[in-house]
Amino acid sequence: MVKQERAVRTRRAVLEAAAQVIGTRGYEAATMAEIIQRAGVTKGALYFHFASKDALARAVIAEQTDPFIPQVTDSRLQDAIDFTHQVAIGLRDDPLLQAGTRIAVETTFTDEPLVPYQAWIDIVTTMFADAKEKGELLPAIAPDRAAEFFVSAYMGVQLFSHAASNRLDLPERVTALWKHILPGLASPGALSHLDPHGRSVRTAA
Amino acid sequence: MVKQERAVRTRRAVLEAAAQVIGTRGYEAATMAEIIQRAGVTKGALYFHFASKDALARAVIAEQTDPFIPQVTDSRLQDAIDFTHQVAIGLRDDPLLQAGTRIAVETTFTDEPLVPYQAWIDIVTTMFADAKEKGELLPAIAPDRAAEFFVSAYMGVQLFSHAASNRLDLPERVTALWKHILPGLASPGALSHLDPHGRSVRTAA
């Protein structure tokens, strides 16, 4: 048991160190040696958990969606809006999420993109599909295609916000994103009661 | 005169070599030495035109909008749609444009982002402002804010397309982008006669 707990702690320390090193240096320039030093683990311990930098990067990306559990309320479209505002706060404040996004963007230009967007698309597709069943979407909208579009547009919006303000203005840019796309996404009945600012973010403010 | 022509040719050769080297290796890993070798110019000739890799990168970005001259027709919103489809073809086929975009995205994560989106935002703002004057936009839309949103969303869509298909599917993703945002952008009268596929692209096909 103690051994297992230690393994979990080591794994987490390596992931956080990787996030910090990759977040600072970028994916290409980050080295396993610096990650080992930063995590304060042995080389053997790191390679026990992650066979390569590629495997480590995939783990950082795979776990970036973990802290986000979308709420389920009467309006699944409002749940989606709230969820994307939660992610915006995470992108602003959480090194693991920032590193995952940086890896995602940078490896886009390599021969083997890690295609990390899929986990996000799956989450949004589920919410859009539920919203469609409840009559919250326009009849022509296909939830999976709309989710793919939404995630790609969101990726651009957060990149832009990163360049413009180190993501300080991301919450208001996410609000603007929803304001622009809701009229082409939501049924007129749903549109009237949706809040593009997000519910939970307002409550927390 | 001959001297001046040679200088123009040298400058162009350096820019194209820089685009190819940066497009292959990324901005950080690209070296002036490799760009000099690829361009087939002397070190002195290169530094006569560009004092640093940073200056060279800024020139690649500054000139990426040059080949695109938006047409001016009765519908400025349709002009904007057509323009973004022309850029999609350029992103798919033109190494200079591809390199400019890669630099733009990669330097987003450095301390001094080159904020290369501004030239695109200016072009789109002009077209949206004209469209607004013609009554093609919904009354609540501010052309500059809408252009900033559009360019950031487009950035994400082309990144996604790059990861998914090396940008082969970018034209259809640009069409999907317009389909999603036009209902929240265009006045009902304009919406009915706009073609999100773009006019010129269809004619060329």
From TrEMBL, chains A, B:
GO MF term set: DNA-binding transcription factor activity; transcription cis-regulatory region binding
Q: State the superkingdom.
A: Bacteria
Name the DNA-binding segment ranges: 31-50
Question: What Pfam families would the database entry show?
Answer: TetR_C_45 (PF21935), TetR_N (PF00440)
Q: Please provide the record's keywords in A-Z order.
A: DNA-binding, Transcription, Transcription regulation
Q: Which residues form a coiled coil?
A: none
Q: Where is the HTH tetR-type domain?
A: 8-68
Q: What is this protein called?
A: Gamma-butyrolactone-binding protein
Lineage here is:
Bacteria, Bacillati, Actinomycetota, Actinomycetes, Kitasatosporales
